[in-house]
Amino acid sequence: MSLTDRIAKGLEAGWKVTDASTLTDNQTHEADVVIIGTGAGGGTTAEILARAGLSVILVEEGRLYYQKDFKMDELTAYASLYQEGMSRVTKDGAIAILQGRCVGGSTTVNWTSSFRTPEPTLNYWADNFGLENLRPEAMKPWFDGREERHTVSPWLTDPNLNNDILRQGCDQLGYSWKVIPRNVKGCWNLGYCGVGCPTNAKQGALTTTIPGALDHDARLFHGLRADKLVMKQDRIDHLVASAMSADTVTPSGVKVHLKARHFVVAASAIGSPGLLLRSDIPDPHNRIGKRSFIHPVNATVARMPEKVDPFYGAPQSIYSDEFNFREGVDGPAGYKLEVPPLHPAMSSGVVPGHGAEQRDNLKQLPWMQSVIALVRDGFHPDSPGGTVSLRDDGSPVLDYPVTDYLWDGLRRAFHTMAEIQFAAGAEQVRLMHLDSPWLNSWSEARAAIDELPMELHRVRLFTAHQMGGCGMGEDPRQSVVNGFGEHHHVSNLSIHDASIFPTSIGANPQLSVYTLAARNSVRLAGKLKG
Amino acid sequence: MSHPPHDQKPFSAMDRRSFLRAGLGGTLFLGTVSVTAGLSGCATAPAGRLNAAETQVDDGYQFQFLTHDDIELFRALLPAIVGPALTEEPEPRRQAIAGTIERIDQGMVRFGPANQKELRKLFDLLNFGLTRVTVARVWSSWPNVTTSEADAFLERWRTSGIGLFNNGYIALTKISNVAFYGHPEHWHLSGYPGPPEWAMNALPQFNNA
């Protein structure tokens, strides 16, 4: 392996990285701060605290994978880099959950889209949750700083055809579109962001903040699952964690106890509420795990007259916010329009079907184009979100009811996506719906979309953005943490991930997580050093 | 899909009520069938390594999650799920199906305990004679099910008004499709040329065998 790789070099240079599957004895370690999770939130926190001179231990349930492991292969990547081997779903099985489970978390497998939290969202939070300090003007310097840290800028290379078709359709119909800002440096425009960036171009946690923290003496345990935070009187005393075997799914039996002055939970909007619930963290108003949001996603695929090769090129470069806030921040459900990459395994799992029909669907992959809609949930009384609870074995599960309010948004999104694809010259369009045939014209599609049942399982739904469940707010009766991610009731506990969002945000969340974590970590470092 | 959208009328109120009742029954069945299957002696241990007589192609693969019965189930279903994309030549066809079942097993190992438990319920329901007949309405045991019977079963679950069955349809077809079409030997079926050659030649992780 060439030593130009940041991780390979660091390991060679003696970074304190422990693969917990190699541990044979129970052990205890201590640091100023223990951080649970190494994604957008945990990585940012670790780097800032370590650079401030605090001793830091990072805990990651997934394993450390890096350039040597990223071979542009879907099946290997889905099994190793994603939660539950890419089989994670909501409690009733109706919504597929795409979420990273590796060092770097979802930033290791996301499609690099890097949006600031939309201004209407920040203002809605200020108006409804008492989060005055998060108004756009106050957040601007923090976004600036994180965009610099993660090399975020609009994608200046031509979009691939898959994305360009979204642009063309919007142009035809007079809908607005924009170029997506991406967190990449020297990107080869290959199209494999979702299976681990093979060139180290992606500036996710894995190539930025995690190495930054490890360079400053932070210690990383991977393959180590955080089981329980143990309280002593009104403070957390230590974390109990289980080493996972090399198979990544079975605990080896070795227990690790981690003591610290302060604990930062950044284990995702499913993992963080799960850990707090397992730990019986004080929750007098029963808020932990409530108001979980997912940007429910539906999709259409089109067959285009020319080859699209939707598996190549930067996966996301064009988006449209035409319908995101059009009806006001809290009106009928708004949605953001984007494009997904289509590789064979992903496509064969997303396009429902079997037999000759499925063979014929997939035969068309090089001519296929897809649009997705991300519905902005949580801004309306009829969109209260889902609930994270614990299964018998202590693992967290998200129950997410799809309300009529959301079905209305999903149906309108189907209309928009099919309209855009036909406007861009699609020969046929199919909804990702069990009952959808290939539709031959916009008028046929319009009629079909009005008829088709908007029902769980029949409509294929997805989420790549998990948010909420430990919501922030000034009122402890309605939130878990304050506007700085500090727990309302436990003084040495902070939460630094997307679980603190009081609603969804209406954009891909990584930059929002980096930014809030940076802002809250600078404050935390000041307090702990003080 | 062969039928136009106007064939997809919403279910009548009568249908809806009977579906709801059956749906409740279905949930109970899924909840209890694993216990029943265990008590009645269905094999629920991973199959381990199959011998050559069982697989007709002994490549030494060790099954870690799928049981002998599950393997029979997929041998019956895969010809309906991916069969039309396969060659008719018996030997390569058998090998492609055997390989797909192995990749299904590999994938499921990484699904983790919670989802494995759900799959176990589904497979036990389909493998246990009483529920196979009453819930899945498949009359023969899986080794005796024809491809068109397997296809009819999948269509019933796909078009059913009961979400639980739709969910079962998705679970069975999704894992099969992904394990089949995602495999490099089958990439040509979706016209996918694979990762760009020039990039692989230039990247260190492909150059240190």
TrEMBL record, chain A:
Using the record's annotation, list all stretches that form the Glucose-methanol-choline oxidoreductase N-terminal domain: 78-297
Q: Kindly give the Pfam families that the UniProt entry links to this protein.
A: GMC_oxred_C, GMC_oxred_N
The organism's superkingdom is given as: Bacteria
Instruction: Please indicate if the UniProt record lists Glycoprotein as a keyword.
Output: no
Q: Which UniProt keywords apply?
A: FAD, Flavoprotein, Oxidoreductase
* Molecular-function GO term, any one: oxidoreductase activity, acting on CH-OH group of donors
InterPro entries (UniProt xref): FAD/NAD-bd_sf, GMC_OxRdtase_N, GMC_OxRtase_C
Task: Give the family this protein belongs to, as stated in its UniProt record.
Answer: Belongs to the GMC oxidoreductase family.
Q: Can you say what this protein is called?
A: Oxidoreductase, GMC family protein
Q: Which organism is it from?
A: Marinobacter lipolyticus SM19
From TrEMBL, chain B:
Task: Specify the domain of life of the species encoding this protein.
Answer: Bacteria
Any idea what this protein is called? Uncharacterized protein
Q: What species is given as this protein's source?
A: Marinobacter lipolyticus SM19
